[in-house]
Structures are given as C-alpha cells and as structure tokens.
Fold this protein.
Amino acid sequence: MLRSLVGSEMCIRDRFMGVVPIPNVLVQAAVWLASLSVVVLSCKEAYRIRTYALVDYGYVIHEFDPWFNFRATQYLSKHGWDAFFSWFDYMSWYPLGRPVGSTIYPGMQITAVAIHRVLRWIGKFDKKFRMSLNDVCCTFPCWFGAVATLFIGLMTLEATNSRTAAVVACLVMAILPAHIMRSVGGGYDNESLAMSAMTMTFYFWMRSLRTEASWPIGILAGLAYGYMVAAWGGYIFVLNLIALHAAACVIVDFLRNRFSLGLYKAYTSFFIVGTAIAVRVPPVGWAPFKSVEQLAALLTFLVLQALYLAHRERTAKKITHVVSVKSIG
C-alpha cells in the first residue's frame, strides 16, 4: 500500500524514523529556496565587501573623478535639470573651464539624485532611511555592485539553464577583484553604475531571444542600453557585442535557409528604443549614425530590415501560389 502511494504521488523515499514519502514538488521547492538563499547571500556579501572603505575611513569620496562627479550631483540636486545642462564649470579643466552639459554622461548623477529624493521622502515616515547626498554617493557603488552581481547570475541562468552555474557566477562576481576596484564604497565613478547597466542590457537581450514570442523584452534591452549610454562612454562595446551576436544569428539562420521573426523584432526594438535614448545624451548626439565605431550596429539593423522585406515577399508569393493552385483544382 505504501509503495503504491509513493508511486502514485511521484514521491521519493528517505529514511528518517522509517520510510517518509516526500513529494518531488517539495524537493524542487527546497532546491530553489537554497539556490535563492545563496544568491541573496552573494548580493549581500557583494555589498558588504565594497563598504570596507566606508567602515575604515568613513563616508568620504575619494579619487579625482569621483570628486567632480559628486560636485556635479550636488549642482544637479540644488539647481535642477535645466541649469545642470547649461552649467559651465570654471573649476574644471583649468584655465579654460568645462561646459558640463555637453561633456558629461549624466546617468549616474540623475540616478543618485533620484535615490536621494526617494530616501528623503521615505524618511518622512521612517527616519532610519534618511541619508545625506554625500552618503548616498558614497554608498552608490556598493548598491550597484550588488545589482551587477544579481544580473550576472541571471545571465548565467539564461545561458546555461543551470541553477548551480548561476549561483557560482553570483559568488564569483561578488568577490571579483576587477569589479570590486571599480565599485568600492566612496569610488563614485561612472563604471560602478555602468557595469550594472551593461549586465542588465545583456541579460534582457538574451532573454528576448529565448523564444519567438519573447521579442518584446528587446524593448527592455533597449531601455537598459539607453541607461548604459547615459552612464558611461563605454556603451559602444555593449552596442557592438549585441550587434555582433545578432549578425551571427542572422548568418546561422541564412545557412539553415530560415528567417527568425523573433530575432528581427527583438533587435529592431532594441535598436530603435536604445538609439532614441542615446541621441538625447549630450556627448553622444548623432554619433550612432555617423561614428565608424557604431556603423556595424546600424548595418545589422538595415540588413535585418531587408531580410524581413524579402521574407514577407516570399511568404506572400507562397500564399498566392497556394490560393491559385486551389482555385485551379
């Protein structure tokens, strides 16, 4: 009777004070819970490791570029959006000065001010959430170091479909020296945000190609890429890698004599949304259409449009041919 019950419920047996049937769903839930716990621990440790400078030396901005970034954040918070983008800073690039509005990637400053204002609003209800702008900027790299750790795990899970690999990737990213040195507390520089935006873009791009119906996630990839452009001048690496991957997929599909409508829609959504945001970033402008470094992505977009038109024409001819044969028959 017990064996038939175990078989019908698809249970596994374990010896503890006798034979105890454990449903498979509980085993799977336990494995997912354990994996999730390790991922949460990885993100927590990624944050804690990066706060060592804050623990030892206090909430102090260090290095040269972070100090300017902090000054720019203060200016944005105090004077507002319009004044920030028309600000000419006489204290930078001495003796000429710096036209900040046309030379800065403002994503980090905008994000820091937004976080500061959200925490200030929440602080009206709970004082423990109150933080000065200085403290927000000092802790900023630590927060986004944890975010990058999470998205590396999601990328690995999407690429391998292995929870174990995803957990290991999170653990490695949490303690990776190359990432820690660009996201340590007090190091308020663009790379601390850019790594998170970069991994976010790659994850959404990979996720948009999971199935033919997943293409709308390409819009999220475009938004994440636009955020990456606003954060760091290294956005060109992200754009070219995604364009290279899309081009490789197109070549493989061409050799197999097929056309992926999901890839076409995902890349088109990514390119249009991402480029629409990128051209609004002052240092970028119309570079996506003029810069030699970014023409490969534009070329991939145009090739996909041509292949899509050819696919539609071929499909229409097949339908016409089938209809005409049926009418003759």
